[in-house]
Automatic annotation (TrEMBL):
Stored SUPFAM superfamilies: Winged helix' DNA-binding domain (SSF46785)
Alphabetized Gene3D superfamilies for the sequence: Winged helix-like DNA-binding domain superfamily/Winged helix DNA-binding domain (1.10.10.10)
Annotated organism of origin: Nonomuraea indica
Protein name in UniProt: MarR family winged helix-turn-helix transcriptional regulator
All residue ranges annotated as the HTH marR-type domain in the record: 17-152
Signal sequence coordinates: none
Domain of life where this protein originates: Bacteria
Lineage: Bacteria, Bacillati, Actinomycetota, Actinomycetes, Streptosporangiales
Length: 158
């Protein structure tokens, strides 16, 4: 079902825009699938690594479930289910949030920190192999600039 109002014009992509869009999509899929494959080889998912690495950088190695879900672009319920699986592996634990009776903190366990420390070299090698070492310093600068432009939500066009 279309959400366009009657008479609204579709802004189709021209040939250059279409090529750029498809190249971006192929790049994102290729990098994500390759780095995910490399993480899986060491027993972690991308989401596991994101949770572990984010928690390792936080004061007290702790974050609210809400903050972590927002950072990952996930719903709280999706992250809660994932955290349950990580808890059974001893990577994280939950603690009640005294400021939010319905919320909780995710806390990185010692085992989770050790797992991250063991996984980090392989993950960094994967990132280097699939991205960093394939680009020049100018490419990396351009990539960072483009990423910063695209990471913020777009303003609605009137």
């Amino acid at each position: 079902m279309s959400k366009r109002s009657p008479g609204e014009t579709v802004r189709w992509l021209d040939a250059d825009e279409e090529r750029a869009w498809r190249a971006l999509r192929r790049m994102m899929i290729a990098i994500q699938s390759r780095t995910a494959h490399d993480l899986a080889a060491i027993g972690l998912s991308e989401a596991d690594y994101e949770v572990l690495s984010t928690l390792s950088e936080r004061p007290g190695r702790t974050s609210t479930l809400h903050e972590q879900a927002a950072k990952m672009g996930w719903s709280r319920s999706r992250l809660s289910r994932h955290a349950t699986r990580m808890e059974t592996r001893g990577l994280v634990r939950r603690e009640p949030d005294p400021d939010d009776g319905r919320g909780c903190y995710l806390v990185l366990t010692e085992h989770g920190m050790e797992t991250l420390e063991d996984a980090a070299p392989a993950h960094l090698e994967s990132v280097r192999r699939h991205v960093i070492d394939r680009l020049s310093p100018a490419d990396l600068s351009a990539l960072e600039s483009i990423a910063r432009k695209l990471e913020e939500p777009a303003c609605s066009r009137s």
